[in-house]
Amino acid sequence: MSFSEEPLLYIGVNLAKIIIVTHVVLVVCAYAVLAERKVSAWMQDRVGPNRVGYFGLLQPIADALKFFFKEDIVPGHVNKALFVLAPAIALMPSLIVLAVIPIAPPVVVMGHTVPMVIADLDIGILFLFAISSLAVYGVVLAGWASNSKYPLLGGVRASAQMISYELMLGLSVVGIFMATGTLRLMDIVNLQVDGVWNCFYHPIAFIIFVIAAFAETNRLPFDLPEAETELVAGYHTEYGSMKFAMFFIGEYAAMFGFSALVAVLFLGGWDIPFMSSETFASLGNWGAVVGFISFMTKVLAFMFLYIWVRWTIPRFRYDQLMNLGWKVLLPIALVNVIITGLFNLPKGS
Amino acid sequence: MELPFFFLFGGAMVLFTLLTMFVKNPVHSAIFMILSFASTAGLFVLLDAYLMAAIEVLVYAGAIMVLFLFVIMLINLRSDELEGMKVNPLMVLAAGTFFALLHRAISDLGAAVDPVRANTFEGEPKVVAKYLFTEMVIPFEAVSLLLLAAILGTVVLARRTRDA
Fold first, then answer.
1. Which of A14, A186, A341, B150 is 20 to 30 A off residue A349, Cα-Cα?
2. How many other CB atoms are found less than 10 A from the CB of residue A51?
3. Residues A314/A227, Cβ–Cβ less than 8 Å
4. What CATH number matches the domain at B1-77, 1.10.2020.10, 1.20.120.1200, 1.10.240.10, 3.40.47.10?
5. Could you report the per-residue pLDDT of A173-221, keeping only the tens digit for each?
6. Of the candidates A90, A170, A175, which has an alpha carbon nearest to the alpha carbon of residue A130?
7. Binning pLDDT at 50, 70 and 90, where does residue A59 land?
């Protein structure tokens, strides 16, 4: 199915995919907040939210309503245009990157094979890195536009931190592209479905990627830009109501995006061990359902790891963060690229 | 189909570039520059040069401009400090020389690299990589040496002022 053959069907199917993916992710984000509170309560031997609904299951809805009905305050000393724009910039990249992430094997609808990815780009992973590199502007501009001390410090920290760790993120996946010879995420998953998961082929890259993903999403142990014990709340100190909520959703959407990326790049995407692409194909559309469940299991497990780490490991100091990035992770990532290159010499050389 | 998009992205690019130059506030200026890079990326997409579009956003908009903003925020100029900048002949000379070099380089390039054609063979990243690691390997290494020298020079200059 292509745009030139059946434009209306093409547009309809893609719109449906966009709407479904966005809403699924936003609901997962809302419940990830509840999960965060429940898991932290469990780890600290507390009860956690349990008033709204059974087990507190309606808490996200109550929170959302509260955010909507709170007064929207814009402090007098801020740069108004950028202050309003920053939360939107923080949220949008995390949603846009989901466009290139394949979530399940292709589905056959009315004789058409529909790939379960919104945009199957040739340069998928580069697109993803390009867009997610823009997320830092949300934090930086929020810090600057707030026009007060602690947000500015948070913004400055964020810019240096995210630039540094983007490098490790990019370098860690170079090995995968050298071995697979493609940037298309769909191809990378298909190779893993019929082969071995990349986390076994590239264990060092996997570890570096996971560490860098924590730093890129500003999550503990690398949440220096907000660091509530030193910077009040860092870049979102001056924010309230729905604007604050957008930063919050943006953080969890970014967590979802990186979890999905880890699943796709290293954990085989929708693959289930000992199932090949023929097994998936023989199940027909049920194969896609099984694949989607497998993919979501991996994503949610990784999001649980995010929460688990947050309530286990204390925050780094800023110089430790920079040392870890530039003096430890970067050399390891570079050596890893060289070693991968030696193992994957082009045939005939 | 392509023409309206060309005027949309091209017009946006020109507009944002002009705003970059004429806006007073340096942070606003940096943001307009980011937008102008994004419009340039749009033009690359219209040429089917997806790799260039992604690199434009990833490197220029996503990395270099973050560092620009970082520096602007660290210096944190107030608007009254910005008035003092005057055009001196040396600046005009430097800008003129740079423009002449750039013009020469672009006219030398001519139609040697056609992004549309490059993309239709075997996927753009492969074509670019092939050029980079065979024909272009010496210029590529020369540029990286130049950048290394620039970094070392910056560090040396920054150190000297600190000691004094």
1. A186
2. 9
3. no
4. 1.20.120.1200
5. 888 888 887 888 888 888 888 878 888 888 888 999 999 998 888 887 8
6. A170
7. confident
Residue A343 tokens read as 């193992």
| Domain definitions of chain A by residue range | 76-343
User: Best residue in B32, B57, B66 to probe A by mutation, most A CBs within 10 Å?
Assistant: B66
Query: d(Cα A86, Cα A239) in Å, to the nearest integer?
Result: 10
Q: Are A303 and A142 in contact (CB under 8 A)?
A: no
B70–A156 CB contact, under 8 Å: yes
Asked if residue B36 has pLDDT above 80, the reply is yes
Question: Are the C-beta atoms of A193 and A269 separated by less than 8 Å?
Answer: yes
Q: How large is the ipTM?
A: 0.78
Give CA–CA dist A281/A108, Å, rounded.
10
Backbone φ and ψ for A115, nearest 5 degrees, come out as -70, 140
- To probe the interface with A, which of B27, B34, B50, B58 has the most A CB atoms within 10 Å? B58
| Closest residue in A to B59 (Cα–Cα) | A130
8 Å CB contact of A133 and B63 = yes
Whether residue B51 lies within 8 A of chain A, CB to CB, comes out as yes
Tokens of B46: 């219209």
- Spell out the alpha helix ranges (H) of chain B: 2-22, 26-46, 50-55, 65-75, 89-109, 115-122, 124-133, 137-163
Cα gap A124→A129, rounded to integer Å: 9
Is A166 part of the contact surface with chain B (CB cutoff 8 Å)?
yes
d(CA A23, CA A119): 17
Contact criterion met (CB below 8 Å) for A172 and A340? no
Q: Tell the burial category of B31 from Cβ atoms under 10 Å away from its Cβ (0-12, 13-18, 19+).
A: buried
Q: What would the two tokens of residue A326 be? A: 């530039």
CA quadruple A179, B118, A134, A95: dihedral, nearest 10: -80
CA distance B105 to chain A (A): 27
Q: Contact A106/A288 with Cβ under 8 angstroms?
A: yes
Is the separation of the CB atoms in B23 and B29 below 8 Å? yes
* Three-class secondary structure of residue A80 per DSSP: helix
A147 shares contact with chain B (CB less than 8 Å): no
Mutate to test the interface with B, among A127, A128, A173 (most CBs of B within 10 A): A127
Segment holding A112, helix H or strand E = strand A112-116
Sequence-distant (≥ 6) Cβ neighbours of residue A76 within 8 angstroms: none
